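User: Let's play a game. I give you a shape written as C-alpha cells, and you guess the letters that built it. Ready? Here's round one.
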C-alpha cells in the first residue's frame, strides 16, 4: 500500500494535464456531478458570454467592483 507522503511525491511529479484530471476525479468522487445542473450552468455561461460579446450586457471593471465592496463594508 502507498503511504500518503509517497503519493504526494508522486503527484508532484505528474504533468499539469494529469494533475488537472486527478483534481477533477477527486472532486467528482466527493461531490458527484448532477448532469442536468451542469448543463444548465453551461447554458447560462454561454448566454452571458454572448450577451457581453454582443453588447447586451453592461460590464463593470473589476477594480470598480472591488472598490464598491470595500466602500460598502468598511463602514
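Assistant: Ready! My guess for every position:
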Amino acid at each position: 500500500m502507498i503511504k500518503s507522503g509517497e503519493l504526494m511525491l508522486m503527484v508532484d511529479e505528474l504533468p499539469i494535464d494529469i494533475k488537472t484530471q486527478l483534481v477533477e476525479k477527486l472532486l467528482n468522487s466527493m461531490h458527484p456531478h448532477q448532469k442536468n445542473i451542469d448543463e444548465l450552468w453551461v447554458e447560462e455561461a454561454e448566454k452571458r458570454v454572448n450577451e457581453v460579446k454582443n453588447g447586451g450586457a453592461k460590464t463593470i471593471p473589476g477594480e470598480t467592483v472591488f472598490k464598491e465592496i470595500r466602500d460598502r463594508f468598511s463602514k
